[in-house]
Amino acid sequence: MFSPLARPGALAAFVLSFVSGCSPSDDAPLEASDVVSEALPPTVRRALEEAEEVRLLSLDPYPEAFDPEAWRRRGYDRLERCEEYAVLGAVPLDDSTRRRVVRALYTGIDENDGRVSACFNPRHALSATLPGDPEPTKVEVVICFECLSLQAFVDGEHATNALTSGSPQGTFSAVLTEHAIRVPDR
Q1: Which residues pair with residue 138 across a beta bridge?
Q2: Which residues are CB-neighbours of 103 under 8 A, at least 6 positions away?
Q3: Cross-strand pairs, 89
Q4: Cis peptide before 134 (omega within 30 of 0)
Q5: What are the residue ranges of helices labelled H in the chain?
Q6: Spatial CB neighbours of 175, under 8 Å, sequence gap ≥ 6
Q7: Which DSSP string do the residues of 45-97 spell out, in sequence order?
């Protein structure tokens, strides 16, 4: 008797098609749950969901590491900070990737069960700018997957702290790695 699942790789293809059919596509609109809506202020959510440019950043997790002269000697030609952390590299996200990354963040916020550690050594961040009149609004979300927490800033002012799970880290790091940007080890 012939079974279509008897072919090599057929079972994997079947499972993949089933799983992909059950999860939102990268083109599906982003929807914040009640948990995410309580955790992130509206301006932060709007920036992550609607800004023309959202960038994913790799950060040096130690603020004291930002020494402009030492960074120039190490070959960094563009010195950039995200809050007090040195930016090791940044990727502008296309719409599909932005939705994938933000959806992963929202899922992490939904998944957190109240656990948090006492460190804050962020290695990832999201940066977005919303057009504004008279000035644009800059939003930065600095994330530590080691302690499962994040801090959000609007125009340099602290807006909120929130908890996340570690699940978004794989998505964030994969996008950075695809663009040859290093993420520091723990």
Answers
A1: 129
A2: 24, 30
A3: 58
A4: yes
A5: 10-22, 34-39, 42-50, 68-73, 95-111, 168-178
A6: 56, 91, 93, 97, 100, 101
A7: HHHHHH-S-EEEEEE-S-GGG--HHHHHHTT--S--EETTEEEEEEEEPPHHH
Query: How far is the C-alpha of 10 from the C-alpha of 28, rounded, in Å?
Result: 27
Task: Flag whether the pTM goes above 0.85.
Answer: no
Long-range contacts of 180-184 (CB under 8 A, 24+ apart): 181/58, 181/88, 181/89, 181/90, 181/91, 182/58, 182/88, 182/89, 183/58, 183/88, 183/123, 183/124, 184/58, 184/59, 184/60, 184/61, 184/88, 184/123
What digits encode the pLDDT tens for the residues 131-166?
Answer: 987 889 999 999 999 999 999 999 999 999 999 999
| DSSP state for residue 162 in the 8-state scheme | E
Is 159 in a helix, a strand, or coil? strand
* 107 Rama sector, left if φ>0, alpha if ψ -120 to 50, beta otherwise: alpha
Which residue(s) pair with 13 in the sheet? none
Confidence of residue 178 (pLDDT cuts 50, 70, 90): very high
Residue pair 111/163 in contact (Cβ under 8 Å)? The answer is no
- Phi, psi dihedral angles at 2 (to 5 degrees): -90, 130
Is residue 127 within 8 Å of 91, Cβ to Cβ? Answer: no
Please state the domain extents for the chain: 26-178
